[in-house]
Write a structure and sequence with these properties.
It is a single chain. By secondary structure, this protein is mostly beta strands. Helix content is about 10%, strand content about 40%. The chain has a single domain, classed as Porin (Beta Barrel). Strands 1, 2, 3, 4, 5, 6, 7, 8, 9, 10, 11, 12, 13 and 14 form a 14-stranded antiparallel beta sheet that branches. It is globular, with a radius of gyration of 18 Å. The two termini are about 30 Å apart.
């Protein structure tokens, strides 16, 4: 029986975070899945924005410069502009002092607003099947090592994991950071980076289809522990591609995410 770590990251006394094996991705045994480190940076940006009363993370863009090793990480956040209703942030993720990813984010102030009735396109759509009506599926890469497949639970409402367009619900089995309950935004970040995997059209054992970026747009605050991805991968003829996901919680549509793909034969 495998003994699992209790969280994806543990804060360190000297600063920074130590990644656990729960962050391991499917491509290389020593590298993290990008979802957990993106969520770790999301957490830091949320904290910076909260100081100004800006509680909604409307957009998060991650430029993934290098593979993120399973080791010690540091997060740096700077405000590019802070206004009354919105702020723009920049962030860096460092592994052993080396920059591995850069981020930009837009945070907004939430305010009560009564919308007119019968708006076109509203109420917003819900996913065609919720997590309670979806079946548990294992990721194809689960079982060999402790990793991302242990960090999250996946339930599939339509399709099959790694076999084309797929509706999958995901929730965290363990905290992102030890001793903390993850925010809805952090839950989205952990899940959204899986769009290219859950909707893969190529055999991951024969091909790489790694994303070099991730952009998440959210129209409202996510609610609950389940995040749904209605994901689709489209491939171009010259080793490039795009994965796009409609994002849901159990109440309905919350946003969309996009990933640019580099496609290569192994």
């Amino acid at each position: 029986m495998r003994v699992l770590p209790t969280s994806a990251y543990t804060p360190q006394p000297e600063g920074g975070f130590q990644a656990s094996e729960l962050t391991r991705g499917p491509w290389e045994a020593g590298h993290q899945h990008a979802g957990p480190p993106v969520a770790l940076v999301c957490r830091a940006i949320e904290q910076a924005a909260r100081e100004h009363g800006l509680s909604h993370l409307a957009r998060l863009t991650a430029n993934l410069l290098r593979p993120v090793p399973i080791g010690r990480l540091e997060v740096e956040v700077a405000a590019d502009y802070v206004g009354r209703n919105a702020a723009h942030y920049a962030a860096r993720l460092l592994a052993d002092g080396k920059e591995v990813a850069r981020f930009t984010a837009l945070c907004q102030r939430e305010a009560g607003l009564e919308l007119p009735p019968a708006l076109p396109g509203h109420p917003l759509p819900a996913a065609e099947r919720g997590p309670n009506d979806s079946g548990r599926q294992r990721f194809p890469f689960e079982g060999g090592h402790v990793g991302y497949g242990d960090l999250v639970e996946a339930r599939v409402g339509r399709g099959e994991l790694f076999r084309g367009p797929c509706l999958v619900w995901m929730r965290l089995n363990h905290p992102l950071v030890a001793g903390e309950a993850p925010s809805g935004y952090q839950r989205v970040a952990v899940a959204a980076d899986s769009g290219n995997g859950v909707s893969a059209v190529l055999d991951y054992r024969r091909y790489l289809f790694v994303n070099a970026d991730l952009t998440i747009h959210l129209l409202r605050r996510p609610a609950g522990e389940w995040i749904g991805l209605d994901a689709r991968t489209s491939l171009g003829p010259q080793g490039t591609g795009l994965a796009e996901s409609a994002l849901y919680d159990e109440h309905g549509l919350i946003g969309r995410s996009l990933q640019s793909l580099a496609v290569r034969a192994r």
